[in-house]
Write a structure and sequence with these properties.
The structure is a single chain. This protein has six helices and eight strands; from the N terminus they run βαβαβαβαβαβαββ. With 249 residues, the protein is an alpha/beta fold. It has a single domain, classed as NAD(P)-binding Rossmann-like Domain (Rossmann fold, 3-Layer(aba) Sandwich). The protein is globular, with a radius of gyration of 20 Å. The N and C termini lie far apart (50 Å). It binds nicotinamide-adenine-dinucleotide.
Length: 249
C-alpha cells in the first residue's frame, strides 16, 4: 500500500531500464514521485516509464550514459527546465564481469570503473549543484556487498563498489558541513536477480554468455572477509597470509 512518502518529488533513477533500477523507479512512482527513468538503453527506459504511466503515475524516460559528463549536464538541465528542481537521485546504473585479474584487460577494468565509479561521482556532483540552491535533496548511491567482501573474479567490480561506498561517505560529510540540506546514502545489496552486467553498452561491446555467467556465479564461494579466514601455514611453518590486511597507523 502506498504511503505517499515521496509525494510530488522529482526523482531521477539511473540504469532504470532493468533489475533493481526498474524496481526502484516503479516503487518511487507508487510512492508518489514523478520519476525520470534513465538508462543507456533508451528503449528499456521508455518501457519502464510506460509501465509507470499505465499505473496512472508520472514518469518520463531519458537516455543517459552515466559515464558521460556532458550527458549528465544535459539531463539535469532538462529536468530543471521542466520541473524547476530535482529532489531524489538514485545512482543505480552498474556493470560487471567475472574474470581473474591476470586475464582482465585495461579496457575492461576502465569500463567498470567509468560506469560504476565515475557514474556515481558525476551524478553526485551535478545533483549537489542542482539540489543545494533549492533547499536540499536525497542522493542514493548503489554499492554492493562486493565492495565489502572480497570475491574472486570481481576485482574491477569490487574495487569500484568499495570506492563508491567511501566516496559517498565523503559526499555526505561535505553536504552536511556545507548545510546544503542534501543527504547522501549508500544502499549495499547482496545477490539480487537479475544480477547486473547483462550488458555494457548500448552498442553491445560486451555481451556475456548468460549460461556461462550463471555457472560462474553459482560457483562463487562464500565471501572472503579478511577477518574470517585464519592465515595458512606453509610447509616451513611460516605464516602465509593469503588475504589482504589493512594496517591503520
Ligand atoms: N543484482 C545484484 O545482485 C546486485 C548486487 C549488488 C549490487 N548491485 C548493483 O545494483 C545496481 C543494479 O544492478 P542490476 O542487477 O539491477 O543490473 P541490471 O544489469 O539488471 O541493470 C543495470 C542497468 O544499467 C544500465 N546501464 C549499463 N551501463 C550503463 C551506463 N553506462 N549508463 C546508464 N545505464 C547503464 C543497463 O542498461 C541496465 O538497464 C548496479 O549498480 C549493481 O552493481 C546489484
Amino acid at each position: 500500500m502506498s504511503t505517499g512518502r515521496v509525494h510530488a518529488k522529482i526523482a531521477l533513477v539511473t540504469g532504470g531500464g532493468s533489475g533493481i533500477g526498474r524496481a526502484t523507479a516503479i516503487l518511487l512512482a507508487n510512492e508518489g514521485a514523478t520519476v525520470i527513468v534513465s538508462d543507456i538503453d533508451a528503449h528499456a527506459a521508455e518501457q519502464v516509464a510506460n509501465v509507470i504511466r499505465d499505473e496512472a503515475s508520472e514518469a518520463e524516460a531519458v537516455k543517459l550514459d552515466v559515464a558521460e559528463e556532458s550527458a549528465w549536464m544535459a539531463v539535469i538541465e532538462g529536468i530543471l527546465t521542466r520541473h524547476q528542481r530535482i529532489d531524489v537521485l538514485v545512482n543505480n546504473a552498474g556493470v560487471s564481469f567475472a574474470k581473474p585479474i591476470a586475464e582482465t584487460t585495461l579496457d575492461e577494468w576502465r569500463r567498470v570503473l567509468s560506469v560504476n565509479l565515475d557514474g556515481a561521482f558525476l551524478g553526485t556532483k551535478h545533483a549537489i549543484v542542482a539540489m543545494r540552491s533549492r533547499g536540499g535533496g536525497s542522493i542514493i548511491n548503489v554499492a554492493s556487498v562486493s565492495g565489502i567482501n572480497a570475491y574472486p573474479e570481481a576485482s574491477a567490480y569490487g574495487a569500484s563498489k568499495a570506492a563508491v561506498r567511501h566516496f559517498s561517505k565523503i559526499a555526505a560529510i561535505e553536504c552536511a558541513d556545507a548545510e546544503t540540506g542534501i543527504r547522501v546514502n549508500v544502499v549495499t545489496p547482496g545477490g539480487v536477480k537479475p544480477r547486473c552486467g547483462s550488458r555494457w553498452t548500448s552498442s553491445g561491446s560486451w555481451q556475456p554468455n548468460r549460461a556461462e555467467r550463471t555457472k560462474r556465479l553459482r560457483g562463487w564461494r562464500a565471501p572472503h572477509p579478511h577477518t574470517s579466514s585464519p592465515p595458512r601455514r606453509t610447509s616451513s611453518g611460516a605464516s602465509s597470509t593469503l588475504l589482504p590486511m589493512s594496517l591503520l597507523i
